[in-house]
Amino acid sequence: MNKRILQGIGDVLTISFVLGLFFLISLVFLLDVDSMVIIYMLLPIISGIVATKVSVGLLELHEQNSQKPDRKETDDSMRTEPPVEERPRESDQYVNSVPPA
Fold this sequence. Notes:
By secondary structure, the protein is mostly helical. The chain has a domain at 1-64. The protein is built from 2 helices and no strands. It has helices spanning 3-31, 37-67. The longest helix is centred in the middle third of the chain and has 31 residues, at 37-67. It starts with a helix and ends in a 34-residue tail after the last helix.
C-alpha cells in the first residue's frame, strides 16, 4: 500500500485512541456521581476540549513532518562519511585472507 495512506491510517488511529481515552476517563467519573456533581459534569467537556486540542496538535505535527524533505533528497555533498553501502564490511576483509599457521 501507499506509504501516505498508511500514515493517514496511523494518524486516524492515534486521534481515535486519544479521544477514546478521554471519553473513558470522563465516563468513569460520570458513573461515580456521589459528590461534586458539578465537577463531574464539567469533566467530559474539559476532557473533550483537551482531546480535541491534542488531536489537532498531532495532526499539525504530522503535517509539518510530512512537508520536510526526505533524507535521500538532501545534498550528498553535506555528508562527512560515505553512505552505508559504500563502506567495506568488516567481514569482507577476512574472506580472502589466510589464517596464520
